[in-house]
């Protein structure tokens, strides 16, 4: 209400109602009998200090506003679901201790009949590594709500983590009946079939998953199956399709680049590896792959720069230290190379390529006993590798164990029938043993293999092999004493320094990075 004014009208009389009471417009009277009126909110304000008399009000008096009706009490949630929102909030924040307290209270109140509380507790137990306990809780959620596909998927996931793939597959089949278009169910079915070695069904399930949702994980698993089957072209096509739908995924680009590197398409490989490092400059696999290619071309300083970036991310990677060691070997820093390779061997004692490189470096440093030790260990891990037996034969030759050296050469030729360097080294060994008939026979085999090698590899033949062969041929025909007998004992293909190809059928193919190749199980190192 507007404030009242104390304007008094001289000679005014009080207004009475017919009943003898004051009218509603009178608020009260002063002691001298004058009347004090209530100022209307719409009365004009005085101008220049002049008093303006109140105008009679023509509007009816305003009605008193009624107080708003009080709303009813918020209905209580059912006791089973009362704390679900709070449990979920603490769980997504990873505040597991508070979450456990709430879950315990909720389960106590509901007598273990709260589905979500059991579900959240099972997830927490799984993250803590208590998979069997989480499986028991997930099975309780299935009993409470057997028509929830998420509960069945979690039961199957726990069974999968327990390596019970057949049981997990059966549960996934039940979940598929409740949710027929869930890509995750088909994806996990494909992974289960993959571990059960049923590749055809695995591919069918993964293709169904891709139809419902094009997820990178499904493409990666499908490509992995093709690699395990030896179908590299199909794997490349699969990863290309994946990149079309996810063009900024560095993992897919790196995988595709390493596949191109494996089949010898270095330009395409470097392109994809470069794109992967563009989106993620610290992507470790891309750095190792690119460093391997640079190292293969002899630019060891640039390769070491790449490996320095990777070392800050994965300081415990044996493959990285193997490649660093071979960079130092290429720079003829043998002590540093041995130090890096021994560190790699400490991290991965059963990685045959690291032991192989250690034997090669000791052989180069003329430490033949140490070379024999490492090469024998590598043969134990990789018994069907011809290059290993060739280097072992060279070490035995310098240790004056000619009988075992001859057997090692025979084994190397039997395991690697396409390598001309093995036949050449064996011919030199037999020539020095004065067995010229057998030396001539193996030299003829060397020439045949070299012709085939020229047609398939072109100009990739190393000069050292050609020079040694050109000197051995006339010596075998004329019978002159060779002045290069001592150095010929160690003649071998320099590209075998870091040979890491799975088949090792090409002596001039260098793959110095163990991260750029695929092991026999088809997965990337």
Q: Summarize this, please?
A:
This protein has helices spanning 84-92, 96-110, 115-127, 131-144, 149-161, 165-178, 183-195, 199-212, 216-228, 232-245, 250-262, 266-279, 284-296, 300-313, 318-330, 334-347, 352-364, 368-381, 386-398, 402-415, 420-432, 436-457, 463-478, 485-488, and strands at 26-29, 35-37.
Give your account of this protein's structure.
The protein is mostly helical. 61% of the residues lie in helices and 1% in strands. It contains 24 helices and two strands. It has a two-stranded antiparallel sheet with strand order 1-2. Helix 11 packs antiparallel against helix 12 (266-279). The chain is elongated. Residues 1-42, 492-504 have a biased composition (Polar residues). Keywords: Repeat, TPR repeat.
Given the structure, what is the number of helices?
24
What structural class results from the helix and strand content?
mainly alpha
Low-confidence stretches: 1-57, 478-525
Q: Note the beta-strand portion.
A: under 5%
Characterize the largest beta sheet: strand count, sense, and whether it forms a barrel: 2 strands, antiparallel
Can you write the helix and strand succession as a string?
Answer: EEHHHHHHHHHHHHHHHHHHHHHHHH
Mean pLDDT equals 79
Adjacency order of strands in the biggest sheet = 1-2
Please state the CA-atom Rg, rounded to the nearest Å: 43 Å
State the helical fraction: 55-70%
Q: Total strand count, please?
A: 2
Distance from N terminus to C terminus (CA atoms, Å) equals: 84 Å
Apparent shape: elongated
């Amino acid at each position: 209400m507007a404030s009242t004014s104390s304007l008094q009208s001289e000679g005014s009389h009080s207004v009475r109602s017919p009943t003898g009471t004051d009218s509603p417009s009178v608020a009260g009277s002063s002691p001298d009998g004058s009347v004090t009126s209530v100022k209307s909110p719409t009365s004009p304000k005085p101008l220049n200090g002049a008093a303006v008399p109140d105008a009679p009000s023509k509007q009816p008096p305003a009605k008193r506003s009624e107080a708003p009706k009080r709303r009813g009490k918020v209905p209580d949630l059912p006791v089973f679901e009362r704390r679900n929102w709070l449990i979920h909030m603490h769980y997504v924040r990873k505040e597991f201790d508070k979450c456990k307290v709430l879950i315990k209270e909720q389960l106590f109140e509901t007598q273990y009949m709260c589905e979500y509380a059991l579900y959240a507790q099972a997830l927490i137990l799984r993250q803590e590594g208590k998979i069997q306990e989480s499986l028991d809780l997930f099975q309780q959620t299935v009993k409470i709500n057997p028509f929830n596909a998420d509960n069945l998927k979690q039961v199957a996931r726990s069974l999968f983590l327990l390596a019970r793939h057949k049981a997990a597959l059966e549960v996934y089949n039940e979940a598929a009946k409740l949710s027929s278009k869930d890509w995750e169910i088909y994806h996990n079915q494909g992974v289960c079939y993959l571990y059960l070695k049923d590749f055809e069904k695995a591919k069918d399930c993964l293709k169904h998953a891709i139809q419902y949702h094009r997820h990178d994980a499904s493409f990666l698993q499908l490509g992995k199956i093709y690699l395990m089957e030896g179908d590299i072209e199909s794997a490349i096509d699969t990863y290309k399709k994946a990149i079309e739908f996810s063009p900024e995924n560095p993992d897919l680009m790196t995988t595709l680049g390493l596949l191109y590197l494996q089949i010898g398409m270095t330009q395409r490989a470097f392109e994809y590896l470069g794109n992967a490092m563009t989106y993620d400059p610290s992507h470790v696999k891309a750095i190792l792959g690119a460093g391997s290619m640079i190292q293969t071309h002899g630019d060891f300083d640039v390769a070491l720069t790449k490996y320095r970036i990777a070392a800050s991310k994965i300081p415990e990677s044996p493959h990285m230290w193997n490649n660093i060691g071979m960079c130092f070997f290429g720079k003829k820093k043998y002590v540093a190379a041995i130090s890096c390779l021994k560190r790699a061997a400490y991290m991965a004692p059963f990685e045959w390529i690291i032991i192989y490189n250690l034997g090669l470096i000791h052989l180069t440093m003329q430490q033949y006993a140490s070379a024999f030790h490492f090469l024998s260990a590598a043969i134990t891990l990789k018994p069907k590798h011809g290059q290993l037996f060739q280097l072992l034969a060279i070490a035995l030759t310098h240790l004056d164990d000619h009988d075992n050296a001859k057997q090692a050469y025979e084994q190397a030729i039997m395991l690697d029938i396409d390598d001309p360097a093995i036949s050449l080294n064996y011919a030199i060994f037999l020539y020095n043993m004065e067995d010229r008939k057998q030396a001539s026979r193996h030299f003829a085999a060397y020439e045949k293999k070299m012709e085939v090698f020229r047609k398939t590899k072109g100009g990739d033949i190393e000069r050292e092999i050609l020079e040694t062969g050109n000197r051995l041929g006339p010596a075998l025909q004329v019978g002159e004493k060779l002045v290069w007998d001592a150095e010929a004992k160690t003649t071998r293909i320099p590209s075998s320094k870091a040979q890491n190809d799975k088949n090792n059928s090409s002596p001039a193919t260098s793959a110095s990075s163990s991260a750029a190749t695929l092991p026999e199980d088809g997965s990337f190192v």
